[in-house]
Specification:
By secondary structure, the protein is mainly alpha-helical. It has one domain. The chain is built from 4 helices and no strands. It has helices at 3-36, 39-74, 83-117, 125-154. Helix 1 packs antiparallel against helix 4 (125-154) and helix 2 packs antiparallel against helix 3. It is elongated, with a radius of gyration of 18 Å.
Length: 157
């Protein structure tokens, strides 16, 4: 095994840990904060969700994708013809589309609302409505990359 392969594999695994770890932990902490219904706690958690998604989810996704593509190229793999790579990319892209099209806009809107109630104001109904969308779509967007673990580990033909 070459040092380049091992470096890329390490970066790919680090990206997976950051990406999956953050989407799972962020979802947990946001749901737990929202359950308190305390405007100060909810607003603080919402700010952190927005920040950690930008730093860890996006950073992990960039590492995951960049190192994965580089390693496939290093080995001369056509990632659209190798079944397990095609599934991996497909699931990753589907999750990304949900993040970009639904979850990020919902988070930004919730963050704007949280600025208004963050010092102890009343949490508006719109925040809770957006929260339900965030949970449902977020679960799907989390399950898709988790399914990728199967394709990346077992590499079925």
């Amino acid at each position: 095994m070459s040092d380049t392969y091992l470096l890329l594999k390490s970066l790919h695994i680090l990206g997976a840990v950051l990406f999956l770890g953050n989407i799972i932990v962020t979802g947990w902490w946001k749901v737990m904060a929202d359950r308190t219904r305390d405007p100060v706690i909810v607003a603080f958690a919402q700010r952190q969700v927005t920040l950690t998604d930008f730093v860890f989810t996006a950073g992990g996704a960039a590492l995951l994708l960049g190192a994965g593509i580089a390693n496939a190229a290093l080995h001369g793999m056509d990632y659209f013809r190798v079944r397990w790579l095609a599934w991996g990319y497909g699931l990753f892209i589907a999750s990304g589309v949900l993040w970009v099209a639904v979850l990020i806009p919902v988070q930004w809107k919730q963050a704007q609302l949280a600025k208004q109630f963050g010092h102890g104001g009343i949490i508006p109904a719109e925040y809770w409505q957006l929260g339900r969308i965030w949970i449902v779509v977020g679960i799907v967007a989390t399950l898709l990359p988790l399914a990728n673990l199967y394709w990346m580990v077992f590499k079925p033909a």
